Hints:
80 residues, alpha+beta, four-stranded antiparallel beta sheet, 31% helix
Amino acid sequence: QLLEKGKNKCIRFKILQGTFAGMVGVFRFKDIGRRKTQIEFMAEYANKPFSIPNFFFEFGLEVVLQKVAARMRSFMEAQP
Length: 80
């Protein structure tokens, strides 16, 4: 769901399938100057506990989010 408020835009999401099914969150895009955008990501996952220690879960999630951030940045920088 895309929400626009002035110069700020949000994408709200809910994951329906897969390992993170049930996770909900939002990406917020904030205009911070000429050709610059700040992106915030917040999510909540309160579904079922994982069978792995929390440290490994958090580490894996951090790696995934770093890759998502890199791809988003590449995509946005390639836009005219």
